[in-house]
Amino acid sequence: MSEVVRAERRGAVAVVTLNRPDARNALNSELLRALPEALAAAEEDDGVDVLVLTGADPAFCAGLDLKELGSSGSNLAGGGTGSFAWPDLTKPLIGAVNGPAVTGGLELALQCDFLVASERARFGDSHARVGAVPGWGLSVLLPQAIGVRRAKEMSLTGNFLTAEEALAWGLVNRVVGHDELLPTVLGLADDMAGASPIALRAMLAEYKQTSATTVAEGLRIERETFRAWRRHGFDPAEVEARRRQVVERGRSQQRPTPPPG
User: Fold this and answer.
1) What is the DSSP letter of 117?
2) 135, 144, 176, 218: which could join 80 in a potential S-S bond, CB 3.0 to 4.6 Å?
3) Residue 88: inside a domain, yes or no?
4) pLDDT, tens digit, for every residue of 82-96?
5) Residue 61 — φ and ψ, nearest 5°?
6) Residue-range definition of the domain harbouring residue 63
């Protein structure tokens, strides 16, 4: 595995880290080849249930390496096809955004199922400012996350969002202190890894399909997924065992009700 991407196992969680910190993890040709390979390897590892994508400080990803783009332009070949092919993931992917996620870096973040941001995170789309257009799904995924009007504002102005603004706009699920980012994300990943792997992947696949279509078609997809699970995935003994675990877990997570007044 190339050193521009680090991959490590933490139990049932694979942490994939963009590792060009001196270049703010900008996407050169080498990184664009190594990242899909690392994600695909984690997808194929039967011991991995959840994936995490993050960057080596100080940035998450500054987007395409403009030095390479302005010389050979070879890193542009990855726009949707070419040298960069996002693998078809059936396992959840959490984005741990540790710093700026800009343009192509924002597109990488949007490929994640959801995002947790460090207080140091910033989000921006500078495609129009550098004279480029997106090719990795931004014009679809950004409006899906924050709404069309806000997406237009981000892309047409090139203005940045702070982590707190990104939280208010719905781009990220939560914002935490920088030192708490990875522990928080790993905790969420462990929560997911404790679910039934079959149900976890089926539900994720269901969300991906239903969020990409109409309400009526989404309901049809959900019904078909449920019927398939009932025929091939339903195990009453497993449900009963997991029911007891869920009850105990729920009790442990309950917070005392504050006194009135």
Assistant:
1) E
2) 135
3) yes
4) 446 789 999 999 999
5) -170, 130
6) 5-192
Cβ contacts of residue 198 below 8 Å, gap of 6+?
A: 229, 233
For 160, counting Cβ atoms within 10 Å of its Cβ (0-12 exposed, 13-18 middle, 19+ buried), the class is: middle
Structure confidence at residue 240 (pLDDT): 59
Measured CA to CA in angstroms, residue 231 lies from 3, 208, 224, 225 at distances of 45, 22, 11, 10
Half-sphere exposure of 203 (CA within 13 A, CB side): 9
Report d(CA 10, CA 12) in Å as an integer: 6
Q: Residue 251 to residues 99, 102, 190, 237, 242: CA-CA distances in angstroms?
A: 35, 41, 18, 22, 14
Number of domains comprising the chain? 2
Q: DSSP class of residue 258?
A: P
Model confidence pLDDT, tens digit, residues 12-56: 999 999 999 999 999 999 999 999 999 999 999 999 999 999 999
- On whether both 17 and 134 belong to a single domain, the answer is yes
108 touches 101 (CB < 8 A): yes
Q: How far apart are the first and last CA of the chain?
A: 58
Q: Are 183 and 199 in the same domain?
A: no
Residue 224: CA count within 13 A, CB half-sphere: 10
pTM (2 decimals)?
0.84
Per-residue DSSP letters for 160-222? Answer: -EEHHHHHHHTSSSEEE-GGGHHHHHHHHHHHHHTS-HHHHHHHHHHHHHHTTS-HHHHHHHH
